[in-house]
């Protein structure tokens, strides 16, 4: 599991508040440094929006808080149509999915009982998202979201665009790249606030979370803001950990239930629900087809 819990036994920290523990563990002799100046305005904005000032300053003084120009730049030219969705319908992926169905049968059946979503559908989503947790992403989510959140500042914007290779520049027009950067800046700020609240409330080390270049995390690749609304505890330990398989299974099932999976009729209706998860017809078609294969090619 990629996340690290700060507090495993609360009795070891009697009379010490959660936020004090958070500060203490971040402020080790080897992690504190002067904060990145280009994050100064971001810190002020987060504090003005009600986040704890000491918490924000402590996080951004950590030596792991860095700008990720290349990651953000590459994401601007990413094309859904260019992704290899066929790999998820291969014999290898199908067999791997079947083994997952058996291994987590109990959690999948419980999710079906609670939320009315077939196990095959949940497994198909998790396969396409992260190959069933094998590839949850490699980028530090906190840094990716922070970089995108400040991408409208002139110096940051210039460095992001300068990080594009010649090949990447030819993949999208300047107008499309600029539009995507503007859109991601606003969304990433909201996601950054959600991520900070999530790691703080669950005593998770912020720089231990890695995910996609979009800022999605965990086995089901939820954006941080979706965790509060759709994240569900699947193993009964009282917390939502998207790097935990039972929690990931329950969360995907609840997400689909919340978007009226049970009321959707036929392939067209089911795919329409899947588009809420990822607004790509390639994605919806692949998930639905894999789920059908896992279900013996029977209608879902």
Strand content: under 5%
Query: In this structure, how is the largest beta sheet organized?
Result: 2 strands, antiparallel
The count of β-strands is: 2
Sum up the overall morphology in one term: globular
Segments where pLDDT lies below 50 for 5+ residues?
Answer: 1-32
Rounded to the nearest angstrom, the radius of gyration is: 20 Å
The secondary-structure class comes to: mainly alpha
Cα distance spanning the termini: 32 Å
In terms of quaternary structure, the protein is single chain
Count every helix, treating DSSP H or I runs of 4 or more residues as helices: 15
| Helical content band | 55-70%
**Element string (H = helix, E = strand):** HHHHHHHEHHHHEHHHH
Question: What would you say this structure looks like, in words?
Answer:
The protein has a two-stranded antiparallel ribbon. The model is unreliable at 1-32 (pLDDT under 50). Helices cover 56% and strands 1% of the residues. It contains 15 helices and two strands. It is mainly alpha-helical and 300 residues long. It folds into two domains: 10-78 and 142-209, no CATH class; 85-137 and 217-294, Lysozyme. The protein starts with 17 loop residues before the first helix and ends in a 6-residue tail after the last helix. Helix 1 (18-26) runs parallel beside helix 3 (53-60), helix 7 packs across helix 13 and helix 11 (174-201) packs across helix 12.
């Amino acid at each position: 599991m990629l996340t690290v819990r700060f507090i495993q036994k609360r009795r070891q920290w009697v009379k010490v508040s959660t936020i004090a523990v958070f500060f203490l563990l971040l402020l080790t002799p080897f992690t504190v440094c002067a904060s990145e100046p280009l994050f100064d305005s971001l810190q002020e904005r987060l504090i003005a929006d009600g986040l704890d000032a000491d918490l924000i300053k402590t996080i951004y003084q950590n030596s792991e808080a860095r700008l990720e120009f290349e990651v953000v730049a590459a994401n601007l030219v990413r094309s859904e149509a260019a992704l290899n969705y066929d790999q998820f319908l291969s014999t290898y992926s199908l067999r791997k999915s079947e083994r997952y169905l058996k291994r987590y049968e109990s959690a999948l059946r419980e999710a079906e009982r609670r939320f009315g979503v077939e196990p095959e559908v949940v497994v198909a989503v998790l396969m396409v998202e992260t190959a069933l947790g094998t590839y949850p992403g490699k980028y530090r989510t906190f840094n990716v979201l922070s970089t995108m959140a400040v991408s409208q500042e002139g110096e940051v914007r210039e460095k992001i665009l300068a990080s594009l290779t010649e090949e990447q520049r030819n993949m999208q027009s300047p107008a499309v790249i600029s539009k995507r950067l503007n859109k991601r800046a606003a969304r990433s700020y909201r996601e950054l606030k959600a991520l900070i609240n999530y790691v703080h409330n669950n005593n998770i080390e912020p720089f231990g979370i890695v995910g996609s270049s979009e800022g999605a995390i965990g086995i089901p690749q939820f954006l941080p803001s979706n965790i509060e609304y759709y994240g569900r505890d699947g193993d009964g330990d009282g917390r939502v950990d998207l790097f935990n398989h039972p929690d990931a299974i329950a969360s995907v099932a609840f997400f689909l239930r919340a978007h009226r999976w049970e009321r959707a009729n036929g392939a067209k209706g089911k795919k329409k629900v899947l588009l809420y998860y990822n607004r790509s017809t390639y994605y919806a078609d692949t998930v639905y087809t894999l789920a059908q294969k896992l279900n013996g090619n029977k209608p879902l």
